[in-house]
Design a protein that fits this description.
With about 325 residues, this protein is α/β, with parallel strands linked by helices. Helix content is about 40%, strand content about 20%. The strands form three sheets. The chain has an eight-stranded parallel β-barrel with strand order 1-2-3-5-8-9-10-13, surrounded by seven helices. It has a two-stranded antiparallel sheet with strand order 6-7. Helix 1 packs across helix 2, helix 5 packs parallel to helix 6 and helix 11 crosses helix 12. The protein is globular.
């Protein structure tokens, strides 16, 4: 069993936009060259407009499976994942075959991120039913069961409320089973993640359907400890073997990023000490941020951090310092 406090740091860049195929290929190569462990894409589909604009969520250029395949093809060691596939958006057997095929083409380089879905305005804009949170987690749980069976090469037998599949053996079965990451910010999804995931992503609770003050309020130090307790409840004895990931949504590096610490103080209403302690913020000098990363690993067990595309290039000196790459 691995002690998470000694688990090596890993960093992913999450990139939402590329205007051309060549730009995306260049991004993937650049992320690998900077020493990042992984490149994350996102599972969102609608562009700017009346549906998306009020939610605070940025438009995403690329669909995940195709962009993951291209990124894997033009790199050598970079892991590629989707943070997160929304269970509501995909026919589970089709999604399972897609990720198994990716894992066949890029052995030991695919991570399978799964989430329950939260962006109600996008569901509505795409004409997809937006059921209750409980029903969305039900579908996620059944999807995880199906994908786990599929990736293991087991005869498929899932008879759930939302996922029904049986009487076939999956193809392809990847040589190396990719890890499953489950992310969220509410009790039930994090308990499920503790029970079933290899990687657990501690995220905002986006229960309001928008990114904003409620997302921040549900992600303080105290709230993060609650979330980790839910993961432990689900995991039991396997908790030490789970890798804990989180997103650094507020990154301000002195003299490097366009976003400054002061602009984040103004935006959040935090004091300086509160901002620097906020689990989803990394602010200050490179030395300050390296200290914050060590503190997050010591206090929470986080060793895997995802950095957004507005800061991943400027964050490269931190990646080099913390990984030795």
């Amino acid at each position: 069993m691995t002690n998470k406090l000694q688990r090596p740091f890993r960093f992913a860049a999450q990139v939402y936009r590329a205007n051309t195929g060549q730009e995306w290929r260049d991004v993937a190569r650049r992320v690998e060259d900077m020493g990042y462990s992984a490149l994350h894409v996102s599972d969102h589909y609608i562009g700017p407009g009346a549906a998306l604009d009020p939610t605070g969520h940025r438009p995403v250029t690329m669909a995940p499976v195709a962009s993951m395949a291209v990124a894997a093809e033009v790199t050598n060691t970079l892991k590629v994942g989707c943070r997160m596939f929304c269970a509501s958006y995909h026919e589970p057997v089709v999604l399972a075959k897609e990720v198994a095929t990716l894992a066949m083409f890029a052995p030991d380089r695919i991570e399978v991120g799964l989430g329950a879905g939260w962006l109600g305005a996008e569901y509505e804009a795409m004409g997809i039913d937006f059921p209750s949170a409980g029903m969305r987690v039900d579908r996620l749980e059944e999807t995880v069961e199906l994908i786990t069976q599929y990736l293991a090469g087991a005869a498929i037998d899932v008879d759930g409320k939302f996922v029904k599949a049986r009487d076939f053996v999956p193809l392809p079965v990847p040589e190396v089973t990719p890890p499953i990451m489950i992310g969220g910010g509410a009790r039930r999804v994090l308990t499920l993640a503790g029970k079933t995931a290899d990687i657990v992503s501690i995220n905002f609770n986006n229960r309001s359907g928008v990114l904003g003050s409620d997302s921040v309020a549900t992600s303080t130090v105290d709230e993060t400890h609650k979330k980790l307790a839910w993961v432990r409840d689900g995991a039991g004895d396997r908790f030490p073997d789970i890798e804990l990931e989180t997103g650094a949504y507020f990154v301000a590096i002195d003299g490097a990023t366009d976003v400054t610490e002061q602009s984040l103080l103004d935006r959040t209403g935090f004091s300086r000490d509160e901002l620097r302690a906020f689990p989803h913020a990394l602010v200050g000098t490179v030395d300050n941020i390296c200290d914050q990363l060590e503190q997050r690993r010591d206090e929470f067990g986080f060793s895997y951090f995802t950095i957004g595309d507005r800061a991943y290039e400027q964050f490269a000196p931190v990646v080099e310092r913390m990984t030795g790459k």
